[in-house]
Design a protein that fits this description.
The protein has 293 residues and is an alpha/beta fold. The protein has a domain of 173 residues: 3-Layer(aba) Sandwich (Rossmann fold). It has 12 helices and 12 strands. The strands form 3 sheets. Strands 3-2-1-4-5-6-10 form a 7-stranded parallel beta sheet, with helices on both faces. Strands 7-9-11 form a 3-stranded mixed beta sheet. Strands 8-12 form a two-stranded parallel ribbon. Helix 1 crosses helix 7.
């Protein structure tokens, strides 16, 4: 198959491209950075340098392809995060509708079944609806859980404050996922024709936040590391102080609150998948290595 991969050489895009190339498919990787050209070619894929916000560029790349993996690149500088998700989804939809592509896999998120109240994930919900309107394609939404690598963002807090603190925590449950497990699931889905599954959840492990903190703490030599629940106002102030835009900060706090309330998990808990290959203990080794750099 001729497959287009968006997401450049990111956490999911790179292992996905590698997996698809190893399976014998002709892969084109879209990247906005010309300096990634050689690295993409080293994977055995073809680079397409341009922006997913440029529909003319996408139409050219999509011509002649059989399938595409679509994702929304994070862009915290956008003044309205939800409209950004919609804009990217409309670019994908417009390009797909003018191409021979019949198989589409979109990287969404758990919690995307909800219309509002989930921060950035509201954008995934709206993007799913936009792509659902496409005719004559076989579409699957991949809904991963909380990305393991987001835990790396707490390293500085642990070093300075001695604990993890967010608007969720304690005994709140956190389903987590490795990008490599997502890549395997996407590769499996995108190469299936006439697939009836419209939504697929992907997760690697599922623990309480307290359990996550204990595992990470053991990996870095901190016994009894805590994951505390902090007031939303305090978290908002911290995010703004660290240079995040007000819109992005508001979306992050709302997302965290939805995690605390269990809203993100509602549909996931009704449709739990099998765990992937990467456990929390496996990720803790990576966490420890980064912590001790």
């Amino acid at each position: 198959m001729k497959i287009i991969v968006t997401g450049s050489l990111g956490h999911t895009g790179k292992p996905l491209a590698n997996e698809l190339v190893n399976r014998g498919h002709l892969v084109t990787v879209i990247s906005s950075r010309p300096e990634n050209r050689k690295s993409i070619e080293a994977l055995g894929a073809s680079p397409a340098i341009g922006s997913v916000e440029d529909i003319s560029f996408l139409k050219g790349v999509f011509s002649g392809a059989d399938a595409v993996f679509c994702m929304t690149p994070p862009k915290f500088s956008e003044p309205d995060q939800i409209r950004y998700y919609e804009r990217i989804a409309n670019c994908y939809a417009g390009a797909i509708s003018h191409s021979p592509i019949k198989r589409v896999v979109y990287l969404s998120s758990y919690g995307a079944h909800l219309e509002s109240g989930t921060g950035f994930i509201t954008g995934s919900h709206k993007a799913e609806k936009i792509l659902n309107n496409l005719a004559n394609i076989d579409l699957t939404h991949i809904r991963p859980t909380y990305f393991y690598y987001n835990l790396l963002g707490f390293i500085q807090m642990i070093k300075s404050a001695g604990f993890i603190g967010t608007v969720y925590g304690g005994e709140d449950r956190l389903a987590m996922v490795s990008p490599s497990d997502i890549a395997f699931a996407v590769a499996e889905e995108i190469t299936q024709v006439n697939n009836t599954a419209k939504v697929r959840y992907v997760t690697s492990d599922d623990r309480t936040c307290n359990e996550v903190a204990l595992v990470l703490g053991r990996s870095i030599g901190i016994t009894g590391l805590e994951w505390r629940i902090l007031p939303g106002k305090k978290v908002m102030q911290s995010l703004l102080a660290n240079g995040l835009s007000e819109n992005a900060a508001m979306n992050l706090v709302e997302l965290g609150s939805a995690t605390h309330q269990g809203l993100l998990r509602e549909d996931f808990d009704r449709n739990k998948p099998e765990f992937g290959k990467v456990s929390l203990e496996d990720f803790a080794q990576e966490f420890s290595a980064v912590y001790n750099q």
